[in-house]
Task: inverse folding
């Protein structure tokens, strides 16, 4: 259980870092633990959203930009994106249901629930629509937001997202490790007379990672907003699966980063911010027929 809790707290960063990046990953972990983002008393607020008190922070002014963290993550995962995008956008970040400072006492958890929470937060803030950036599970929720609440998403950038939890989408070694950890943790909890709330909550988030999402390609084709699909060439999510997502979204660009794993917003933060920023700022360009030569 502790092993998985550590993986969740690291947002998959440390487990997917190469040996050459190991020390750098540890340094980033320390920065996340000490940054004001995610614990900023000056801007941090709670909103009553769909039966939970959702913790959120807002930075900057301008066009709304919702940034969504990954499994077991928090607002602080975007310490490199917040100051960059807050120069031009009203940056909105929240701790997702059952993660970070957002407590959830329900027995179940799904990506659809988290997605509808985020939609509720935008309603709470009286935001008609927003640009969206999602990392990992945040990318899944970004895709679902574009499908379930299409009027809310102007443009969407997702990195390390997946449509299903099997080995056609997830690196086989990591998929097997996560599933085994989930089963072991579930068996351990069954033997306890009283299950601590924190452990029960961790199991709920683990279950989400192991058995969801289950999104069909047909559903992707309903997305009407422009989407930038991002992945590392050695991501947790296989390159062929990232390509599958790209190919099934009508208005999409694809960006595969070489020599990169899952943590594109961390290890490639400057490039990530610039490319995503350009995507959000420029009109979507349909590239067809003779235009493919340009």
Result:
């Amino acid at each position: 259980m502790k092993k998985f809790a550590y993986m969740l707290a690291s947002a998959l960063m440390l487990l997917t870092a190469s040996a050459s990046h190991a020390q750098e990953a540890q340094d980033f972990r320390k920065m996340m633990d000490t940054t004001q983002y995610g614990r900023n008393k000056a801007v941090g607020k709670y909103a009553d959203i769909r039966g939970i008190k959702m913790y959120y922070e807002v930075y900057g002014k301008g066009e709304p930009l919702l940034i969504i963290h990954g499994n077991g993550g928090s607002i602080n995962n975007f310490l490199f994106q917040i100051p960059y995008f807050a120069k031009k956008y009203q940056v909105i970040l929240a701790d997702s249901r059952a993660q970070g400072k957002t407590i959830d006492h329900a027995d179940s958890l799904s990506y659809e629930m988290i997605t509808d929470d985020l939609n509720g937060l935008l309603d709470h803030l009286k935001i008609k629509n927003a640009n969206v950036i999602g990392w990992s599970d945040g990318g899944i929720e970004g895709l679902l937001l574009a499908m379930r609440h299409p009027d809310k998403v102007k443009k969407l950038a997702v990195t390390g997202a997946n449509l299903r939890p099997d080995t056609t989408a997830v690196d086989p070694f990591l998929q097997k490790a996560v599933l085994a950890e989930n089963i072991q943790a579930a068996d351990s909890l069954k033997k306890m007379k009283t299950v601590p709330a924190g452990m029960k909550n961790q199991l709920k988030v683990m279950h989400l990672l192991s058995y969801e999402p289950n999104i069909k390609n047909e559903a992707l084709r309903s997305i009407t907003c422009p989407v930038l699909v991002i992945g590392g060439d050695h991501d947790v999510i296989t390159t062929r699966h990232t390509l599958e997502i790209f190919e099934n979204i009508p208005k999409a660009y694809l960006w595969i980063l070489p020599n990169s794993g899952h943590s594109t917003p961390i290890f490639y933060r400057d490039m990530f911010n610039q490319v995503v920023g350009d995507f959000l700022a420029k009109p979507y360009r349909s590239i067809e027929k003779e235009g493919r030569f340009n």
